[in-house]
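Module 6 notes. Inverse folding takes a fixed backbone as the condition and produces residue identities as the prediction. Think of it as a translation problem where the source language is geometry and the target language is the twenty amino acids. Below is one complete input and output pair. Work through it position by position during the lab.
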């Protein structure tokens, strides 16, 4: 391996790590806000946007994490938040829209990865 190639690889990994750390921190902060009893549509949207950004970052060849894992986690987290008794009907409805959208994104990714031969089993 040439020195230039090795340097380029290190720079690429470093850039990925910065993007991953930034996206992961954003998700962490958005989860804290989402868990609040007073969270509403804005917090749900921020959580979804942050998680989608993390999934996109995880598409990098440098990533040890799979974007599908992130999308499945997104759906599960929103489903758990919907089940909390303190949540309003409006909050639940807004979460359901995002759960459905995350399911569509998950299936799209399965189609890309498996040439439309993989079906995401979502419950």
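Target side of the pair, the amino acids:
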């Amino acid at each position: 391996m040439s020195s230039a190639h090795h340097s380029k690889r290190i720079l690429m990994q470093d850039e990925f790590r910065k993007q991953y750390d930034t996206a992961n921190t954003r998700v962490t902060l958005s989860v804290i806000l989402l868990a609040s009893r007073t969270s509403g549509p804005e917090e749900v949207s921020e959580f979804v946007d942050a998680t989608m950004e993390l999934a996109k970052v995880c598409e990098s060849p440098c990533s040890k994490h799979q974007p599908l894992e992130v999308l499945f986690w997104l759906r599960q987290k929103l489903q758990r938040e919907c089940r909390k008794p303190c949540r309003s009907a409006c909050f639940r409805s807004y979460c359901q829209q995002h759960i459905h959208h995350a399911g569509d994104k998950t299936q799209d990714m399965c189609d890309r990865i498996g040439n439309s031969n993989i079906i995401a089993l979502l419950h």
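Reference fact for the lab report: The longest helix spans residues 3-34.
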